[in-house]
Amino acid sequence: MDAPHKELNPHLTDYLFLLLKHRWTIAVSTALVLALTVVHTYTSPPVYQATSKLVIDMERNMSFITAEGAGMETYLTVALALNTHFKLVTSRPVVERVVHMLELDKTGSNAKDPEEPVLLKRLVKGFKDFIRGGEPADAPQDRVAMMTDWVMKKIRVEQIKDTRIINLHVEDQDPARARDIANALAHAYIDYNISNKVDATRSTLAWLTNQSYTLKAKLEKSEAEFLDFKQREKLFSMEGKQQVISQKIQEFNDSYLKARNRRLELDAQLQELKKTLAGGVDMSHIRSLVTNSLIDSLYGNIVNLEVELSTLEKTFKPKHPKIVEVQTSIENTRRKIREEIRKEMQTLEAERSVLQNRENVLQQTIAGFETDAIATNRKELEYKILQRAVDTNQKLYDALMAKTKESDLIGDADASNIRLAEEAVMPPAPVKPRKQLNMAVGLMLGLILGIGAAFLWEYVDRSLKTEEDVERYLGLAVLAAVPLGDPLRGHAAA
Prior knowledge:
Blueprint: H1 12-21, H2 23-43, E1 48-56, H3 75-89, H4 92-102, H5 119-131, H6 140-152, E2 155-159, E3 165-172, H7 175-233, H8 238-279, H9 283-289, H10 293-315, H11 321-410, E4 418-422, H12 435-460, H13 467-474, H14 487-493
Antiparallel strand pairs: 1-3, 1-4, 2-3
């Protein structure tokens, strides 16, 4: 009957016991990994790092028509611009410039080749070349592409926090070459940026030149149409003609109002005179309506005759010849006054007729001017449309020509917003390998592997080796132990 298996909770001392039990395994693993780390660290060639610094200033985008800022910078646009520069500075066109600047694509005493591969890699490569029957020498373009890839692997771009400065790190086994590549990369990127802007400016200049010819043709066409319209309508100035028409309408309108008011006055005057004549001659009222010296004189004679009659009536009888004579003179004078009033009325009616005719003529004249004003307004609309077309085309053409001249002037100018802040110097010490760090990592890795191997071995090994194993895993008491004898001594005794 099998003894029951007893599960026990592990204690910290159990782990310590396990580590002590497999201490040689842990020690050997640690020593082996550390030895391999030491060999790798001290056999690896030193790698040097050179750093150049670039400053990326704010780029001002200007409208080519208004010459005003096309937009304002925000945190997002700045971040996007810097990220764009990070990608472009390590792009293939820029690195190819570096390869050509340092002549890395050439072989010979003036060119430095990349590091030779280790012995094993050289043997493998030689075997492959032998199997393939050898390969022709690399073409120049293949050599440039290979060296470009090789240089790209050595570049690392880093931004200094909260600044517009970027560091261009280059790592190489040759400190002088690392410095040269870092400096060449900075200058190559500045040249690349300038070249792109110059190409864009020249492209814009070509476009502006083509557009200027189109706008010039449109301007000449609009000017010709405007001139034809003015000649056809006999217009020198639309504003002048409108002003003349308005002035004439105002003058004739004033004359019409004066004639109309005078006619209305005459109508009232004639109406009162007719009423006066119909109801009897009231000289005081007539003299207020008519200004006539003859009537005034006749009226004075009547007054004198009436005074004389009044005096005679006190002395003579009504049938007396003197009284009759005076009465006859008064009646004749009154008849003359009536005749003068009728003549005055005829004169007033004639004047009224002239005023009426003048009103009609003035109305017709004003209507004609108003018709001309309406027609002129229609012409003014077309006039303004044609003039506006000429002005707009002229402004566009002037702005385009000014921008064309400006673009022509700055076409070959240094317009880059990137400048070199600090050139790379010869690195005094290598940055790789990091001996102390490698040793610490190797020691930690060896310990981890050794401890892991100890725990794995303990997990895989299920045999019972000691009395404590029997009691712990089987739960049985050990009654006796058989000592291990010496087979040599037993054989000799026998």
